[in-house]
Amino acid sequence: MEEKLIATIANDADAQDKYFDTFRRSEYLEPERALLLALLEDAIHCYRKFADARNRAGRQQFHEAEEWLMGGGDGWVFGFENICDFLGIDAEYLRRGLRESTARSVAQNRHRRHRQTRHRQAA
Predict the structure, then answer these.
(1) CA–CA gap between residue 52 and residue 73 (Å, rounded)
(2) Which domain holds residue 58?
(3) Quick check: 58 and 50 in contact, CB under 8 A?
(4) Which among 20, 38, 95, 116 is placed 20 to 30 Å from 13, CA to CA?
């Protein structure tokens, strides 16, 4: 999952430096920091994995992740923006990267499925 987060910020050297500096400050991640990172990674994983879900459960997973990641800050201690602030990650930059990379991935998956369907129909 961490690789997907890194891929999202891969085009911005400054964002990469800030992301990695968060973890270079100490070799040991405090349990709280590790928990917040796990929450963020899980939401990103669900958002990307279920973005093109066709079944009800997958769509529900996507919408829950989307609401948490893309929604405005509600002041909740475990809200996306608060977690990003704590981890030293620019929330808007991460949102933009997630939208763009997920849109590309969904488009590629749909194109692949369309080609497979046409191939089966031709056979």
Answers:
(1) 25
(2) 2-122
(3) yes
(4) 38
What is the number of domains present in the chain? 1
Q: d(Cα 106, Cα 110) in Å, to the nearest integer?
A: 6
Phi-psi region of 44 (alpha: psi -120 to 50; beta: other; left: phi over 0): alpha
Half-sphere exposure in the Cβ direction for 42 (13 Å, CA): 10
User: Tens place of pLDDT for every residue, the chain, 123 residues?
Assistant: 556 665 666 566 676 677 666 656 555 668 889 899 999 999 999 999 999 999 999 999 999 999 999 987 667 889 999 999 999 999 999 999 999 998 988 888 777 776 776 667 766
Neighbouring C-beta atoms of residue 21, cutoff 10 Å: 10
Rounded-to-integer distance, Cα 64 and Cα 122, Å? 39
- Cα angle: 92, vertex 29, 32; to 5 degrees: 70
